[in-house]
Amino acid sequence: MYKAVLCENKIILSMQLRTMKVPAQLHYSSLHLWVKHIENDLWETGITDYAQDLLGDIVFLQAPQIGSKLEKDMPCGLVESVKTSSDLHAPLSGLVTEINESLINAPEGLNDEPYKSWIFKFSASNPEQVNDLLNAEEYTKLIES
To answer: What is the pLDDT of residue 145?
Structure first.
């Protein structure tokens, strides 16, 4: 069972010795990706602390290719760990503009700093879809259940 605590503008979930971070300024998909607005229609995304914790030690990352069309909630990449693999699902519709090459070469960065380790950036074709995503409080409730 998790316990939610608000600390320094972040909701923190505690489970025994492990603390789950859920930064308040991000948006979250129910499939455990976070989204951050950069500027204009540009966004970046990565996996949540909760997702990386469930996956365990991440050993491989397949990001969508630059220029790939994203369709909200459709698979667009893959994360593999020593335990399992999981599809990445596009949090919003759009077009991939950049991938984090350093993360492709060292995917363990997703375990170390999931909210600083963006996987790809994209131009949103329908930015209003962000309203369908969860805020930190709603995401916290999702992962608590």
So the answer is: 87
Q: Residues for the chain: how many in total?
A: 145
What the chain holds in terms of domains, given with CATH numbers, is: 26-133 (2.40.50.100)
Strand ranges inside 55-103, DSSP E? 58-62, 69-70, 75-81, 85-89, 94-99
Residue ranges in the chain whose pLDDT is less than 50: 1-2, 15-17
Sign (positive or negative) of CA dihedral 93, 95, 100, 106 = positive
Closest-CA residue to 58 (of 43, 68, 66, 48): 48
Q: Which of 52, 20, 14, 15 is nearest to 33 (CA)?
A: 52
pTM confidence score: 0.86
Tokens of 9: 């503008």
Q: How far is CA 14 from CA 5, 18, 34, 50, in A?
A: 8, 6, 19, 11
What is Dmax (Cα atoms) for the chain?
43
